[in-house]
Design goal:
InterPro entries: FAD/NAD-bd_sf, GMC_OxRdtase, GMC_OxRtase_C. With 221 residues, the chain is an alpha+beta fold. Helices cover 22% and strands 21% of the residues.
Length: 221
């Protein structure tokens, strides 16, 4: 109510849940060199991408027919956790989402695991910033996610990175996984992992919660 009053917006119905409860989940790339010729890295050359696109357009098959996130899973961050709270999915090349940055690899091949904590208690908001004049585009809202605002967020994200390391250390990856490219094998302490996370965490692009459904007596719905 105070926000609306400050913007000169007449109050129609008071509901404290409007614009509140904004949430998202973060992830970080955990990148490894691949020792064998078993990644998408060579296909990122422009001429190869053109061939991939042409094959998909003409035949609806090939490397262009998938988003390549074909393996993943959910695990518990620690013993005693009731439900799996860590998400991991694999991409057969170490690259940024927009494809602009490819991790350097001595073999020319790489992979990455996207790891993240899916049950964060951090909450943010979406607030109006001004009253829109008639027939004018609405002003941009103020959006604040308050990412990583609880100690649990940091504990769980560290656990996600360490679990990823446990996975690639299994015998099934023998002869396939090379050196850890990022955050790097030397990043073992909580402080080192926190520094990496603070620099490299990204949204997993699933924001929600400011207009959730619920019973009439739920003030947040």
């Amino acid at each position: 109510q105070a926000l609306l009053a400050s913007l000169g917006v007449p109050l129609v119905h008071a509901h404290e849940g409007v614009g509140a409860n904004l949430q998202d989940h973060l992830e970080v790339y955990h990148q490894f060199e691949v020792a064998a010729a078993a990644s998408l890295a060579p296909h990122l050359a422009p001429w190869r991408k053109a061939l991939i696109g042409a094959r998909w357009l003409l035949q609806k098959e090939g490397l262009g027919a998938t988003n390549h996130f074909e393996a993943g899973g959910f695990v518990r961050s620690a013993a005693g956790v009731e439900y799996p709270d860590i998400q991991i999915h694999f991409l057969p090349v170490a690259v940024s989402y927009d494809g602009a940055s490819v991790a350097p690899s001595q073999t020319g091949h790489s992979l990455q695991m996207h790891v993240g904590f899916n049950r964060s208690a951090s909450r943010g908001f979406v607030h109006a910033t001004a009253r829109a004049p008639p027939a004018s585009p609405p002003p941009r809202p103020r959006v604040r996610f308050n990412y990583m605002s609880t100690e649990e967020d940091w504990v769980k994200m560290r656990a996600a990175v360490r679990i990823a390391r446990e996975i690639v250390a299994q015998p099934a990856f023998d002869g396939l996984i090379g050196p850890e490219l990022s955050p790097g094998a030397s990043a073992e302490s909580d402080a080192a992992l926190d520094a990496y996370l603070a620099e490299h965490l990204e949204s997993a692009y699933h924001p929600c919660g400011t207009c959730r459904m619920g019973p009439a007596d739920d003030l947040g719905a």
